[in-house]
Design a protein that fits this description.
Elements (H helix, E strand, L loop, with lengths): L10 H28 L12 H27 L11 H33 L7 H25 L5 H25 L1
Length: 184
């Protein structure tokens, strides 16, 4: 039996990434099933039944703040289908940035849906701890993304500043991700 290879993009990395992807897809499928079959569907516009507007919130937040963000975190370290030697650091940075943009956009759309529902259904907003932690999480995510964009991508800080910011960027990014997962 041949041993699994490590982080160099070998079989072990592909199996690990496949497992993560399979779990993410299973979670998305289960939330979609729950929202569509048991809760009445998904919608951002609804004239009579307002519940499908709210139902869009869990799936958008799962796709944005959990799935896209997890893929962004993982793709910077290793892309599962190629060895790290074949993908430049710049390409990994751009993929990391783009996936975070997708995550932030889907999260923003999820926030839009969750604020639109109470307004149209004439019920109060922000009455639970979940909602306040969620607002804090999406705000920290957006602030972290903006700071990282201007530090690492455009126009970019000095090399020394970027080197000293990387550990803090990684730590704070993982903390915001943990906050998103914990609030889910």
């Amino acid at each position: 039996m041949q041993p699994l290879k490590g982080r160099d993009g070998g079989a072990g990395a592909r199996v690990g990434m496949f497992t993560v992807l399979a779990h993410m897809l299973a979670a998305v499928a289960l939330v979609l099933l729950w929202c569509i079959h048991f809760c009445g569907g998904l919608a951002l516009l609804s004239h009579d039944n307002k519940q499908p507007i709210f139902n869009a919130h869990p799936i958008l937040m799962l796709l944005g703040l959990i799935v896209a963000t997890a893929k962004a975190i993982l793709c910077y370290r290793s892309l599962p289908w190629v060895t790290p030697q074949l993908v430049s650091r710049d390409a990994r940075k751009k993929a990391h940035l783009a996936l975070h943009v997708v995550g932030l956009a889907l999260g923003g759309l999820g926030i839009y849906a969750v604020f639109k529902f109470p307004v149209e259904a004439d019920i109060p907003n922000l009455y639970s701890l979940h909602s306040w932690i969620g607002i804090t999480t999406i705000s920290l995510y957006a602030l972290h993304w903006l700071t990282a964009f201007f530090t690492f991508f455009f126009p970019g800080a000095t090399a020394a500043t970027r080197r000293s910011a990387v550990p803090w960027h990684a730590l704070l990014g993982l903390l915001v991700f943990a906050l998103a997962v914990g609030n889910a």
